[in-house]
User: What shape does this take?
Amino acid sequence: MKVTAAIIGFLILTTAPSASTQAPGGSIEGTVLRANTSEPLAGIFVSLEAGYGRIRTIETDADGHFSFKNLASADYTIEPWRDGYFAVTAVTNREIHLGVNEHVRDVTGRMERASTLSGRILYSDGEPVVGTEVVACEPGYAPGGEPECTPVESAKTDDRGEYRIFWLAPGDYYVATDYVPATAGMGPAPHRTFYPGTREQSSAASVHVNARADIAAIDFTVIEPPSRPLFTISGNVVGLPAGFEDKPVETFQLVPPGATPLPYNRVIRNAAADRSNGRFVLRGILPGSYEIYPVVKDSANRRYTQLTPVTVVDRSVENLTIEVRPGVDVRGRIVVDEENRDVLRGNPQISLRSKHDDTYWWDDKRQVDPNSGAFVLHNIFPGQYELQYNTALPPDCYLKDVRQGGRSVFDGFTVGGESPEPLDVIIGSDGGIVDGVVSGDNHVPVNGATILMLPAQSLSTRSNQYFFAESGKDGSFRIFGVRPGDYKIYAWIHAPRFAYRNAEFRRRYEQRGTPISVKAGLATAVSLRGILVEP
Amino acid sequence: MNVLLLIVGLLLPTPQNTTIDGVVTRFGTSEPLGKVEIWLLRDGESPDQAAPETVTDSAGRFTLRDVHPGRYVIEARRGSYITNSLAVSADSPVANVKLALARGGVIAGRALGADGKPFAGRDDTGGIRVSVARVLRDGTLASPLELPTDDRGEYRIYGLEAGWYIVWGEFKWNNLYYKPDPAPRDSWKATYFPGTADREKATFLEVTEDAVLSRIDFTLQQ
Assistant: This one.
């Protein structure tokens, strides 16, 4: 740092000797006011930023005034902020190109105090619910596409069942709390109650929060989950790796059958008092059909497991034997044109998506031989998989096919108890390009539209074959490295985050997709009318 | 599949699973306590990995079925009550385990900055945080409970065991990235109720079962 300063000093000396003894002379000043008033706001933090970094943060004085002095000529951004306040309108002169010795004095921020929302949560017998988290949330989608009420702020109830959520920006919120299921049981989704006392978001009442409001008495009674019998699953794990026979198996995965989304998988602890000889007891199991698998690693970090189906009807399951085996190696090679051999040297990552439970398997280590393209994926358990190519490819390249024994297994292949026949992962270099532009009403280009391109016959985003983009300032977007074929393309305006990952959301707009045929090695132009998403 | 399981079952020793039942009452009374979480922990197991097994009904009763024989600790918890536990040896049915829970005391009030204003805390930035610690017999302090103040400067700490406590507040920046320069709050001192930076001058507060000590208000000194 000192060295840099000295060099700069030297440059100044040689170019402009008179400036050498003076600090930079620019300044930026301004005021933060309460929105829609001329009332100054004291104690607001104001940050001066340049490039990607925050240079300095100061506080507004009693007159709402702030001042940064001794500034060199540069591009600056002014950011007023304070927990408990929100910006009502954009800061005037937020981005400043400050000339040498220039003084900018007219930066104005307009902010308002955030609001509070408070109330009390009770059980049906009138006793307070203590220590439960209460959320103010907005309807949205989770990263996996499941609809959720996305938490904005939250607070825990105290010993009186009272909560107070503060720092809430104006808006319409649902208020909810999850009944903490007081069992080790593997329940489905948490047992949530929405204000004013309903299980369903669709029948919940939203609370309108104005600026600077203190909304009290948002009281409600939790709906307690019905009491259900719980059972245990117990037995022994056999076939443990050498040297691990005496080590307890600590945890088990319990998966509802079918491709149930991941959040519903549960890790259940082994509650056996005596855990020797692979003995296990899993407690708190609701009736239902599951697949259960312990995960054991040997000293070479090889995973041993066995997916075991279990159905719990009206009694505990005892003496279940789970014989674990090590996963198998899946081998193959990446086949790529001579001119794209650099692909192999870029440490490409391949993973396998389990069609069974939508989990991904990969090795953290370098998998692919940079010369031959040969790869090995270790520890793969029996099941149905789809190969995913996870590393960015050159613009023209794409995953063209996955072949096994002379036939295409692009859509999936089976791994059994032995290593399967090797895979050929074929990288094509004649990928198509889609050049598009999104416009709204009156043909105005739309910035930030959500663009999704799916194979024409599919509405699924769980595959190698969908493409996601966002339109830029001029409404344009480009998708490259497209596997030739027929697609449908959608452009949504104001789509909530992750909405496109929700199957129901996609189905709602199924008829409004634009068909597009992407040809090998060619660019296809498309002009899309944005689909306005209704809240 | 069932046939296979049965055969395997015959080959392995079959420990007889058992049952533990009991009742939870309010400490010092015969009043049953419902909604108490019952945890079944292996001897020496930390509750961090475990989950509650069941909750007591309105008569304070609970039953744990299909318990694999062995030594366990039964832990009873209910928000704002003081957790209690009991070791049991469950080689045969264990009937009528009795646990009593005392309602914890409460210390509540308001802690303001030296400027007389609240500064609500948040984990990523910082703010005024309040701690309470029990004074042990030898004059040392048990590990404190700490929590942030809200937007009014208020705090409320519940579930406290009976005993003598001291209360203090301090202003902390949790991430210096957010800290203004100059930082007038750097001169604010850790301040003990009723308003002294000297721990020797802190007032001892006596908390008894179910007591609520409110208006434990103070202002940080500088």
